[in-house]
Write a structure and sequence with these properties.
There is one protein chain. This protein is mainly α. The chain is 95% helix and 0% strand. It has 1 helix and no strands.
Amino acid sequence: MPEKAQTEACLRGELSNLRLERDSVIGEGTEANRKVVLLEEEGRLLKARVARLTQEKFKVERDSRAALSLARSMDTHNASDADCYKRKVTDLNDHLQSKNAVVSELRHQVDEYRRQMERSLSQNRLSQIRGEGMITPS
């Protein structure tokens, strides 16, 4: 029996070692499972972040295209508006010149009427003075 006891002790030692290895492997497996769960959660969060960043990228690109389109449109409208205002200024300058010519002509007429009125007044005074007999016609 000593051999049997010795074999039994040896087998118990091996069994004990195998149980320790099994517990160690189970612990490592549990830890690996936790790591897998954490990595899966991290992967899910990363996918959600990538999706959000992709949406933001598309939004920024869309806004950028809209801004460029608006800028081009404004450039076109500004050029068109500038041409319109230039034509308007030219038209107004022409109108102003014609009005200035009319004003000048009217001033000339007013000056002519004043001279005629002064001559008429002078002749009326002369007639009055002659009528009073102060001046004799020569």
